[in-house]
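Minimal example, chain plus zinc ion.
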Amino acid sequence: MTPILHQLSQNITLIDLQFRGRVETIAAYLIFDGEQAALIETGPASTVDTLLDGVQAAGVPLEALRQIFVTHIHLDHAGGAGVLARQLPWTRVHVHPVGAPHLADPSKLLASAAPLYGDQMESLWGTIVAVPAEQLVVINDGDEIAIPGSTLRVFETSGHARHHHAYFDAKSSLLFTGDIGGVRMPGVRYVRPPTTPPELDIEAWRASIARLRALDATGLCPTHFGLFRGNLAWHWDDLEWRLVAWGELVRVQLEQGADENAILQELKAQAAAEFAKLGVDPSRYDVAVSFESLVAGYARYWRQRMRNE
Ligand SMILES: [Zn+2]
């Protein structure tokens, strides 16, 4: 595939991974100071060739790529880490302590994803392999890591998953939000919370939003998709409002005894009403996170809470 690159700053390039042949679905971010390079997100294993073509098209020799950071270990963010690490044995893969064991041995991750995707697993995500232990680097909240031309600050940001980091680049003041900053399509004023199971935690997510809001970033870079500048307070507000409002919708439905299919229809209707006001095609959001996944995440969260009451 012809590489699609977007220059975000002097040192930072977005590589569009063209997942399933679609643009603006999954991004990887390349940071290059002219000598060495770092990558934030690998994307899935199925798009590693596109990723590496993009790295080289950005003028970065593969030997210069030294550091890889993943925001969390979901397959659309880090599924390619093992393949990449094996192809580029000089790289180091930086990951949250909770995620590290699953990059070292992806068998549990694969076992939990397999029933969701069935025989689509391979064609969607590619062949997932382990990151060699000697290439794994566990990083923690508060770490400041030297990267080419800058420093990356690590922020523990649970809520979407317990193995999630956001990364703040000190030089550009851009914040790489993974999934904790929501899904937002270029040119659209709409942020969808990817409330994927099994670790959704609404309260923790709101605390992470509060933390990241306070950073005074100049721009947000969610993995789905691209760089957003301008009114970032609006972005956080929209994300938080929808995270809570959709959560309430699901909670009320569950309390009334609705099954997941009925809830799915309710949530789709709610989203359609929201999109009608915007006049844009909502299907662009569905590729990054499906309604089935949204409902399953919320339902699991509330059922757990109801059981504990
Ligand atoms: Zn995720």
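Residues 240-308 form one domain. The chain is about 40% helix and 20% strand.
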